[in-house]
Fold:
Amino acid sequence: MTEQAATLEAPVARAASVNDLTIHVATVNGSGSQSSNNVLMRAIFQMGIPVSGKNLFPSNIAGLPTWFTIRANKDGWVGRKKEVDFMICMNAQTAKDDVMALDPGAICMYDEPLNCAQYRDDLRFYPVPFAKLAAEVSDDSRLRKLLTNMVYVGVAAELLGIERAELEVALDKQFKGKKKAAELNVAAIDKGLEFAKANLSPQSLFRLERMNETAGKIIIDGNSAAALGAVFGGVTVVTWYPITPSSSLCEAIIGYAKRFRVEPDGKATFAIVQAEDELAAVGMVLGAGWAGARSMTATSGPGISLMSEFAGLGYFAEIPGVIWDIQRVGPSTGLPTRTAQGDILEVATLSHGDTQHIALIPGSVAECFEFAIQALDLAEIFQTPIFVLSDLDLGMNNWMSEPFAYPEAPIRRGKVLSQEKLEELKGQWGRYADVDGDGIPYRTLPGTEHPMASYFTRGSGHDAQARYSERPADYVATVDRLKKKYATAKQYVPRPEVDRKPGAKIGYIAFGSSHLATLESQQQMKREKGIDVSYLRLRALPFTDEVFEFIRTHDRIYVIEQNRDGQMCDLLRLELAEEALKLRKVLHYDGLPIDARFVTDVVCELEC
Amino acid sequence: MAESTLKTKSEAPKENRLGLKPADYQGGKSTLCAGCGHDAISNQIVRAFYEMGVNPDKVIKLSGIGCSSKTPAYFLSRAHGFNAVHGRMPAVATGAVLANRTLVSVGVSGDGDTASIGLGQFMHMIRRNVPTIYIIENNGVYGLTKGQFSATADEGSKLKTGVVNDLHPMDLCALAVELGCGFVARGFAGDPKQMVNILKAAIAHNGLCVIDVVSPCVTFNNHEGSTKGYQYSKEHQELLHQIGFVPSFEQIEVEVGPGEVKEVEMHDGSRVLLRRLEEDYDPANAIQALQRLHEAHDRGEILTGLVHLRPEKESFMDLLHVVDEPLATLPAERTRPGRAALEQIMKELM
Structure:
C-alpha cells in the first residue's frame, strides 16, 4: 500500500465540523460487529458527546448485510440522519452501493481487498488491511474474524479523535467480567490505532472532542426500559411468544425480575410464561388480569392480528391486561427487522364489533419506562386491555436519556370490592353497574370469600348484574357505558406535549419514535427558512382536548408518521371532520427510521 | 356388567365439613335440552365439590364456547365463572391459575372446543401441567350450531341426516397420556357413580386432570347409528376397574380381599382405590394405558375409569417457583423493588 492510496484527497471541499457526524458501518450479519459498534458508540458517549446507535439488520442469523449507524451531535440531535459522513466498509456484498450512496467529500474507510477507491474520486479513502492486522493479534482463525471488527474501532478512533481510555472503559462494560476477551479486544483496538497513526494521514474534516453533555445520562434501548418499567410497576404475570422486535422486551423482564423480584426464600413474585402462540399469550394475560394479577404481554403486528378476538373479549367483558406492540413493517411478514408505525388503526379498534382501545405511545426510552408502569395502572383502573405502541427503532436501538425517576405514585389497583366492602354493601352490587357515573364498574376478584362475591364473566351479551342477556336495551346500555368509559380515559391518559410557537401558522403533530426527527426538523425550519413551527406530540389514544385545540389554532397541520396511509392523520380526521382539510400527511415508510431532513423537505415543498 | 365403583361409605351427611349444604354448591337453571348428558355431569360436579368440602368461593370455573361451555353457569354459583372464547379456555385458565394458585380451577370444554379449534391450547396446557380439572363433555357433534360432526366422532357413525363420518376419531385420553398428563380419566354421563369418584380424585390431584366424558347429545347424536348416544354407550362401556375414593379427612377402612385393590395416595392425602377386574391394570403405566385404549377402540368399546394416574408429577406452579400466596394480591412492597435497585441499574447504564 502506498501513502498516496491511503490519503486520496477528496476534491470536494466540505466545512470541517467538530462533534457533528454520522458513522455508518457496513458488515455481514453474524460476524460479531455488534460489540464493536457498541464500544464505538459508548466511547463517544463517555467523551460527553450526545450520541445514538441504530442497528439496521436483516431477518437472518448470519450472512446477509447489516449496517450500524452512529450519530454524534453536540446539540443533541441524535435522531437518524441519512447523510453519512464516515463510512466503514467491511462487507463485499454491499461495498459498491455503500460507496456510491455517500455524499461528495465523505470519508470512506474500507477493508483493503474491497478496493472501494475505484468507484469514486470525490471521497476521501482510507484502505486498511484488516485481515493482516487481526492476524497479528491472534492465531485463532475464528477469533481473528471477530477481532477484525475491533481493529476498525481502533482505526476509526485514531482518525476521529476518540480517546483510547474511553474505548477501554466501554470494552470493560461490553465484556463485563470476561477479562481475557477484554484484553484481546484491547490489543485489536491498539493494533488499529497504531496502524492508523503510522500509515494513514490524519484528517480534520470530522473530529470528536471531549465535551460535557452526557454526564449523568444513561444509554438504553426502549425494550429494556419498558421491561424495567414493568418490573417496577409491579407486574406479576408476563406471557409472551417470541417475535421480532418484541422478544427482547420480555427477555429483559426475565433478567430484571430474576435480579429484583425473587424473595429471600428463592420464590418469585412473578410468573413468566413463554406461550405456544400469541393467542395463548393474550389469553393468559386476560385470565391473569381477571383473577387480579397485573399482567402483560409484548408482541408485534402479526401477534396483534392474532390477538384480535381476545382484544374484543377484554374490551367487552372488561378485563385488565397490557399489550405492548413493538411495531415493525407490515402487512403480513413485511420487513420483520425494520421499523414502522403501521399498527395505529389496527390497534385503535382491534377486534370485531364496536371496539375502542386505550393506547399509550411512548416517544422516548424514559417514556417506555414510565408508560410501562402507567399502563399497568390504567389496565386495572379501566378494566380493559391497554395497548402500548412502541416500534423497532425505539424498542431495539440505543437511546440516550436522563436516568429514570423512581415511581413516586403508589400502585393503583382500580375499583375492586373486597370481602369487607361486600359485607358493608350487604352483598348488593352489580358487576357492570355504573355506580360512579364514569362508566367504570366495580369488580370482585375470584377467591373473595363472600357468598355474593362471584359473578359470571362472558363475551356474550350481559346486563348490569353480569347475567346473560340478549335484550336490546341491555346491549345498548353496555356498549354506551363502554363509550363513556372510553371518554373518561381522556382524563387519565398522558396528555400531549405541546410546544406552541407564538405566531406560528403551521404545526407538526408527531408521536413515538418520530419525536427527535420532528424536533430537529422544527429547528431546521426556523434556522433555514425562518418559519416558526409549533409541535404537538401525541402520547395516547383517546385524543384529548389539547389535540383539537392545537389543530383549531393553526392554519395547517403536518401529521408526521411512519406508515404509508397516514393512519393517525385519518383517525384525527374522523374525530375532527370540520378541520380535516387542514391536516396534511408527512409519511415515511421505507423501513428505516424517519429523519429530520425528510420531514423538512416534504414540508418545504408545500410551504416554502 | 360389574358395578363401576367401589362402595366406601353408606350415607351422605346433610352438611359437609365446612358446614355448607348442597344448596351452596348449586348453579343456575340449565338451558340445555332435557336429558342432555352435560347436565348429568354438572350434577356430579356439584356433588363432588360438596362432598369433598371444597370452599366454593375458592373455585374458578372456566369454559370456551359451545353447549358444554355454557354449563359453568349451572353449577357452583358461588364460584367466579368465565365463559371465554372458542377453544381458548386453557390459556385463560392458565392465566387465572398463575394469578392465584390457591384457587381450585375447573375447566369445562367440549369435543369441538378441545379437539378442533382448541387442540393446540389443550396440548400445551397438558405439557405445562397447570393445576386444573379439565372436563371434556364429549358428544361427537357440534350441538349449538345444530349437529355437525366433531373431531371425536367415530368412523362410520351416522348423523341424523344420514351423513356418515369417514374420518378417524381423535382419542383425547390417548393424546393426554402421550403428552405426559398425570391424571387421565374417561367417564360416561350415564354412570354418575363412577363420575363422582373420578371428580373427587381430580380435586385431590395437584396438576392437570383430563377427564373425557362421553356425554350424549339427545337432540343431534342419540339415534340409531350414533356411537355416542346413551343406548350405544351403555352397551359398549368397558370398565378398567372399579373406583373407590377415600378423602383425606375421612378414616374409612374398605373391606377388600388381599391383592384385589390397587391403592394410590393422592397429593392431598386422599386415597384412590382401584379394584381389578379382568387383569392387573397399573394406572402409572403409560404404555399399558395406550394399549388398552387402542384395544378398546378397535373393539368399538368405550373404556372408562382412571386411565392414567401419576400424582407425584410436579405441577406448573411448583416448576415456576412462585410464592405460595396469590400473585394477584401481593402488596406493593413485594412487587415494586426499592429505590436502591433502580439506582443501581441506572449506574450500570451510565
